[in-house]
Design goal:
The complex is a heterodimer of chains A (382) and B (94).
Chain A (H helix, E strand, L loop, with lengths): L16 E5 L26 H11 L6 E5 L9 H10 L3 E6 L6 H10 L3 E6 L4 H8 L4 H13 L4 E7 L7 H11 L3 E6 L4 H5 L1 H4 L3 H18 L4 E5 L19 E4 L5 E2 L20 H6 L2 H4 L17 H4 L4 H8 L15 H11 L14 H8 L6
Parallel strand pairs in A: 1-2, 1-8, 2-3, 3-4, 4-5, 5-6, 6-7
Antiparallel strand pairs in A: 8-9
Chain B lengths: L11 E2 L5 E5 L4 E6 L2 E4 L2 H7 L8 H11 L6 H13 L4 E2 L2
Antiparallel strand pairs in B: 1-5, 2-3, 3-4
The chains are: A alpha/beta (382), B alpha+beta (94).
């Protein structure tokens, strides 16, 4: 294999999860958005024909789940065409959306196209905070859309990203999900990448907030039983072992960005020294199996101490390469969430600060084009 | 067992949250659901592909015994159906 640090004995498995971030355009401006902060640099979106070709290439590689995300995927007016082709090819098709732009006409068209499931995001159980966090007036619209999704008999996942500013509303969020009659509720504590990393000091909850939220969630689970599955994603800053990020680099997950660049996770574009291939220039089979970037952190050959000899390295794969880079400056280091990492203190410091009342050192930064351009140019944003 | 989960004439179906399909890349039957997949064992696949909203429990067992003659499958099938029901993969068609 061509890439330094790759493990030539490592077996290449199918890219089960194909995430199509079809656009970075978005009517919302969420402070915890996982899109790159410099997304305005990547505005040359793939055409309908380019997407259709890629969907046809990924299916024989073994992709089964197809997610349409963004940005707001509903801003693409060819989304019905892409869903229909995904369905025809035998993918399980997932629409991951804010709800803005999802009217009755489109819901019916998606049904016709074979869309299997809709994941709708809410920012909070209250109109005030939902609208503040997304910097839009969207709460009432989202509520209407949630009703319509059930009227059209779609399986529905409600996704609420949790953080310091909304986690104390957990009871109301759970009750909102129950009233919506959703099949799954995903309570996803913020992962600190992209815009969320920039806003981390404002978003990281205290340990007390987190423990309260988990307790209330468990009480709710016991009450509703099998009627609704509640997934509570623990914030990894409070763990002492890292998450098995993406189940390993280049293992099951393939993200395609709006401009056609293929990534082993949503965030990998931040990693220096790697050239991520574009579907405009390469076949998806080459990208997944042979490209240096997708082989860079496959297997264990790249690992340093303490991961290299760790008995848990086949469980968590050393954690997240992007978090290792963001917090230690070197993507080959152990994810510093791990208490065996020599850099674990950077996580402990952030956690210690989160136990104190917030200090307003700089204002919270909304995801919008103007801020993105300033961050891309490395200009001050506040 | 005092209680039987499904009567012999109960017709079974897969709820709309799940979709069963053959995956060449996995060389297996899989169940797909929102953002996830379960890869079925060969025997689980043989049972699940007969859960189609028309076959009864007795019909599924008879078909399997015809396909794999000389084996007593009833208890294994009933055990699997209980597990599958517990996980929400099947329900009684009404």
């Amino acid at each position: 294999m061509s890439a330094a640090g790759s493990d030539s004995t490592h077996k290449i498995t199918p890219p089960l999860w194909l995430l199509a971030e079809v656009t970075y355009r978005c009517p919302l401006h969420c402070v915890f958005c996982s899109n790159p902060v410099d997304y305005t640099r990547y505005s040359q979106e793939l055409s309908t024909d380019e997407w259709l070709r890629v969907l046809n290439e990924a299916r024989p590689l073994g992709a089964t789940q197809l997610g349409f995300s963004g940005g707001e995927p509903l801003l693409r007016d060819d989304l019905e065409v892409l869903v229909a082709e995904g369905h025809r090819l035998g993918y399980y098709t997932n629409l991951i959306a804010s709800g803005v732009g999802l009217n009755e006409k489109r819901l019916a068209a998606f049904k016709e196209a074979g869309l299997d499931h809709i994941q709708l995001s809410f920012q909070d159980s209250t109109k005030e905070l939902n609208d503040f966090l997304s910097s839009t007036r969207t709460f009432d619209l989202k509520s209407k859309v949630a009703k319509l999704i059930k009227e059209y008999d779609y399986p529905m996942v409600l996704n609420v990203v949790l953080h310091r500013l909304n986690i104390d509303h957990i009871q109301q969020i759970l009750e909102m999900a129950e009233a919506m009659n959703v099949e799954y509720l995903e309570l996803a504590n913020t992962q600190y990448y992209g815009w969320a990393f920039h806003n981390r000091d404002q978003l990281l909850p205290s340990r007390e907030q987190l423990e309260r939220a988990e307790r209330i969630t468990n009480e709710f689970r016991a009450r509703v039983g099998k009627r609704m599955r509640v997934i509570f994603v623990v914030p990894d800053y409070y763990a002492n072992r890292p998450k098995a990020c993406m189940n390993g680099w280049g293992s099951v997950f393939l993200c395609l960005t709006a401009d056609g660049v293929a990534l082993p996770c949503h965030e990998a574009r931040i990693l220096p020294g790697l050239t991520f291939p574009s579907v405009r220039n390469h076949s998806l089979a080459w990208i997944w199996r042979d490209s240096p970037a997708f082989n860079r952190f496959r297997g264990e050959g790249w690992m340093k101490k303490p991961c290299r000899t760790c008995p848990e390295r086949d469980k968590d794969f050393g954690g997240c390469r992007c978090q290792a880079y963001l917090l230690t400056g070197d993507a080959e280091n152990a994810d510093p969430v791990c208490d065996l990492s020599p850099h674990h203190d950077v996580v402990l410091q952030a956690v210690a600060q989160a136990q104190q009342p917030p200090v307003e050192t700089r204002p919270i930064l909304f995801r919008d084009d103007a801020n993105s351009r300033r961050l891309a140019a490395k200009e001050p944003v506040s | 067992m005092s209680d039987v989960l499904f009567a012999s004439d109960a017709v079974l179906e897969i709820p709309r949250l799940f979709r069963l399909q053959w995956e060449t890349a996995q060389d297996a039957w899989v169940l797909l659901y929102p953002e996830g997949m379960v890869k079925l064992s060969p025997s689980a696949g043989e049972i699940m592909k007969r859960v189609d909203g028309r076959n009864s429990v007795a019909g599924i067992i008879a078909q399997l015994e015809a396909a794999f003659p000389g084996t007593e499958l009833r208890q294994d099938v009933m055990d699997f159906l209980e597990t599958a029901h517990e996980r929400g993969w099947i329900r009684q068609h009404t």
